[in-house]
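User: Sequence in, structure out. Go.
Assistant: Echoing your sequence, followed by the C-alpha cells.
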Amino acid sequence: MQNIFEYATRNKLRFRSLRGMLDIEQLWDVPLRSRDGFDLNAIAKGASKALKEISEDNFVETSKTTEHTRSEMSLEAVKYVIDVKLAEEETAKTRAAKKQEKEKLLSFLAEKQDGKLSELSVEELQKRIAALED
C-alpha cells in the first residue's frame, strides 16, 4: 500500500462527517471524542461502513475496484490520525503526571531543607546571616 497521505491528497479523498465533507488536513482538527457526534470515531465508523458496503461478498469478482481502494485508504487515513492523537494524549497524561510528581518532591525537599535550618544553633544562624551580608 502506498503512502496514505500521498494517496489521499492525489485522489482528493473526502471524509463524511456531521458537519459536512472534510479533507485530509481537517481530520487533524477533529476531536477524538465528543458529545455531539462530531469526532474521529464517528468518521472512522462511516469509513468502515462504506468499505464494508463495497466489499460485500463477491465470489466471482475478486479484484479490487478503484472505489474499494479509495474506501480502504480513507479508513486507513482516519485510523492513522486516531492512532497519532491517542499517542499524543497518552504522552500529555504522562507529562502531566511527571510534572505533578516533581512538584510534590520539590515541596518535600523544601520542607526537609527548612527542617535542617531549624536545627541550626543561634551562632550558626548568625554566621550564615553574616556571610550573606557581604
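User: And one key feature?
Assistant: The chain has a mean pLDDT of 89.
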